[in-house]
Amino acid sequence: MAASFFTLIIFLLASPPVYGWRPWPPSSTTNTSHYPFSDSKKYEGSSDFVKLRYHMGPVLTSNITIHIIWYGTWNPTQKKIIRDFVNSLSDTSVPHPSISGWWRTVQLYTDQTGANISKSVVLGEEKNDRLYSHGKSLTRLSLQGVIKSAITASTRPLPINPRSGLYLLLTADDVYVQDFCTSVCGFHYFTFPSLVGYTLPYAWVGNSGKLCPGYCAYPFAMPAYVGPAERKAMKSPNGDVGVDGMISVIAHEMAEVATNPLANAWYAGEDPTFPVEIADLCEGIYGTGGGGSYTGQLLDARDGATYNMNGIRRRFLVQWVWSHVLSYCTGPNALDH
Ligand SMILES: *[C@@H]1O[C@H](CO)[C@@H](O)[C@H](O)[C@H]1NC(C)=O
Ligand SMILES: *[C@@H]1O[C@H](CO)[C@@H](O)[C@H](O)[C@H]1NC(C)=O
Ligand SMILES: *[C@@H]1O[C@H](CO)[C@@H](O)[C@H](O)[C@H]1NC(C)=O
């Protein structure tokens, strides 16, 4: 008993990086050969080869509360953009194509009892970690330390909500996190009781604005390796390349936490340490015709900014997610379905 518990802990601590968001387009350092699509098959991700399966674990069927931990220095405008995005997830009064329309695809997923993922996503209490409590270079395990500090703080600790809380840890643009910029822009997992005291689903997303915008804030910044012809970045909808780039990564991770919070619910792939989840399947696809190196059909704002969905007070560019009902990637701005 003790041995198997200990083995489990060692397994968890030794687990390779999983559930990471890999940027688009794939860089020379990203090995995409395990992906279910070759470039030529990436037309909106439609494929007979995708075997997304439900592995019987829980999904987030209760009203979801997002608890943001702002790690490091964040200005009020940046916070407002991200809060507006989170608040847009459940706001059905926003004109089509809307962020809440995007979340409807996530709601199609169910648990063993047939209960759908919650339609209601609200912003809960937030915590500032202005003084970089765990330094400016974080490991995957020290991210859990940051969460622990936030739920055990002596003043205004975040509530402990393992059933319907989603802890969103956002690191400022001067913070490096293990594997950031080389293989991930964000990831999701759950906290270990041995470290944090509870099993809490969480996601981390970094602001890549200074460290690697061409990697994590594409297409609002271009990777260094693209040629001069393709070098022109798109104008970001809220005037902050790092934060506008984070929005799609936050959306990606939230869709995956909701459908696979404990890594035993909805995912494709044979390798349980490298599951391919509902947003992984649609990376780089933002509109009709997307796939390969094409983002798909997007919208132009009057000021020349590029976006694909409306939110509260502002616009966002958010990648699509896989619909297991349609068997392809979709979003509210789809022209053909
Ligand atoms: C990429 O991964 C595949 C298997 O997933 C492996 O066979 C191949 O050698 C890898 N390529 C590189 C360049 O690491
Ligand atoms: C719940 O999921 C089922 C199965 O995917 C789907 O048919 C139904 O429309 C979903 N309900 C809502 C409210 O999204
Ligand atoms: C869930 O949220 C809805 C509004 O979106 C609200 O009407 C309902 O009372 C909430 N349920 C619980 C259990 O809090």
UniProtKB/TrEMBL annotation:
Residues 1-20 form the signal peptide. Transmembrane segments: none annotated. GO terms for cellular component: apoplast. The keyword Ribonucleoprotein does not apply. It comes from the Eukaryota. The keyword Cell wall biogenesis/degradation does not apply. Its main location: secreted. Pfam families: Phi_1 (PF04674). It is found in: Secreted, Extracellular space, Apoplast. Keywords: Apoplast, Secreted, Signal. Belongs to the EXORDIUM family. PANTHER family: PROTEIN EXORDIUM-LIKE 3 (PTHR31279:SF7), PROTEIN EXORDIUM-LIKE 5 (PTHR31279). This is Protein EXORDIUM-like 3. It comes from Lupinus luteus.
